[in-house]
Amino acid sequence: MPIGDFRVPSPAPLTRPEQGVVDAFHHLYYSSWQQGQPTIDVSWFGWRTLKCPLDLWIYQELIVADRPDVIIECGTRYGGSAAYLASLFDLLGEGRVISIDIDTDPALNRPQHPRVTYVAGSSIAPEVVEPIKAEVAGKRVMVILDSDHSEAHVLAELRVWNSVVPIGGWLIVEDTNVNGHPTHPGHGPGPMEAVERFLSEQPAFVADPACERFRMTLNPRGYLRRIAA
User: Fold this and answer.
1) Nearest residue to 123 (alpha-carbon basis) of 156, 97, 84
2) Nearby residues of 153 by Cβ (< 8 Å), 6 or more positions away
3) For residues 190 and 116, what is the distance between their CA atoms, to the nearest angstrom?
4) What is residue 5's predicted lDDT score, i.e. its pLDDT?
5) DSSP code per residue over the chain
6) Is the pTM higher than 0.85?
7) pLDDT at 81
8) pLDDT tens-digit map of 177-202
């Protein structure tokens, strides 16, 4: 498919009342899912994934603009997002996905795709991390973090994987919305707190507000772009 050159500028900041409306909808959207409603249950070609469709569209834009050779996905769950990313690579004609998860239960029935490699293990374990780093050395890499959502684990992932992201590339932290940002206040310190700590110690990355222009995202301040070595 031919690739166009349209790029989207950053949106204007919301007013406080506007942000209140967004936060109220966000809380309804997420809390409904927690109560058993399928608001976050979506599918890609019949494969289940737990994503906001607006975030999936942002992923498409970033992948087309950045053209990564490899996406490292920490957290596979059902495999629907890996299938989605692989399908985008099919359209582009190149690229592959390495998806890491500790859960290898066959009942998950994950999709098989020639562009997807599933790796069993912890996304911060040296025996998992080091072979993958060696494999992707010299390639353009995007990283998506969506595994254990505790602050300690996400911060460890950020510290482990940021080095493979090139200047201009993306390190995406999912579900920064929990622990009251703006929803699920009882979660406890999680991805958002990890992002804030990481950004305070790693000025080479910045959160890009253009990725939040649809107003609704499960990953507020989670789209991190490397701007320096």
Assistant:
1) 156
2) 124, 147, 194
3) 28
4) 85
5) -------PPPPPPPPHHHHHHHHHHHHHHHHHHHTT--SSEEEETTEEEE--HHHHHHHHHHHHHH--SEEEEE--TTSHHHHHHHHHHHHHT--EEEEEES---GGG-PPP-TTEEEEES-TT-HHHHHHHHHHHTTS-EEEEE-S--SHHHHHHHHHHHGGGSPTT-EEEE--TTTTTSSS-TTS-S-HHHHHHHHHHH-TTEEE-GGGGTTS--S-TT-EEEE---
6) yes
7) 98
8) 999 999 999 999 999 999 999 999 99
Q: How far is CA 168 from CA 24, 62, 163, 208, in A?
A: 33, 11, 13, 11
Q: Which domains does the chain have, with CATH numbers?
A: 16-226 (3.40.50.150)
pLDDT in the model for residue 96: 99
pLDDT in tens, 111-154: 999 999 999 999 999 999 999 999 999 999 999 999 999 999 99
β-pairing, 141-145 vs 116-120, is unpaired
Looking at residue 2, what is its pLDDT? Answer: 79
